[in-house]
Input
Amino acid sequence: SIINRSNKTIEGFKFFTKIKIKQTVAWRLILTLLKPKTLVVIDWDIALNKACLEKRIKLYYLQHGVIVADHMYFGKNSLKNLSKGDLPYGFLSWDEVSAENFENLCKTFVTGNQWNNAFLENTFLHWFQKDTAALTLDNFTKPVVLFTLTWGKHHEHFIPKCMIDVIKQTIHTYVWIVRLHPAVYMKNENRNKFEQFLNHNFTSEETANIYWKEFNTLPLPLILTKAKVHITIESSVVIEAAQFGITSLILNSNVIQYGPNGENTPPYGGPSYFKLERECGYAEVYNTDLNINNWILKQIPKKPLGSLEKNRTEWQRFIADNNTPYNIHSN
Output
């Protein structure tokens, strides 16, 4: 289904192609038709949450991005103002820092990023033995630098000037893999704009050595198994890279101060963003005195941040909880 958040209706579901109804009503109808016992969602919706609560359906929210105290929707400063009925049945988090935001509000399980964990444990690697892009990735002899872009209105600028210069200077020293945000990459219009941006700012020889098209559809953790460093505007890939022992450079210092677009109030940013990664040496915030070329050169692999063993234990605890009777008050 396609949710129209502006007027709180749901459009596009086969049964509702010619009418508009309130989200809560639509979710009740959908749940009645599908009769699920459990839902695991990556985009937590309060209307769906309430419908699940009414029908005693377990709804677990699966983390898919940064969740820290300053987050405007999922940070503890915002969540504490919600009623129990507005909260999910449980929260599957990447780490303890994220889980803290939901503590004493709903059930929490530090299951880790299961997608990343599968590649850390080599579960899926054999699936890509014949994939052309994966074979290209595996055969690179130069160090790989992963550069992740961002979403929202500021994605139109794509690569900032300081990074254009760095890429030009090191185009034959490193393999540059550029990942657009999935919400940006999925639109053909954005892909065309990005290609035009590359052609305008780089020579044809340089663009031939910037890998992006085929590497935007490869699993991110597969690329992280090969990367030397990660540079980003402000992506949550900072957290994922740390799980692979990779250090990140965060270009947009505003995200740590108050928000990615430079707003005066914290929408998606604040001092708690990437705090663990910064304090443990897995992330650094860019400043104009920093020589990015030297920074890349100095980076060495680190011990992966996180515990696969704890994630496995927590995953089993989640499975066990899902198999027990509905009890929203126990943790």
Q: What stands out?
A: The chain has a mean pLDDT of 87. DSSP finds 16 helices and 13 strands in the chain. The longest strand covers residues 227-232. Residues 308-322 form the longest helix (15 residues).
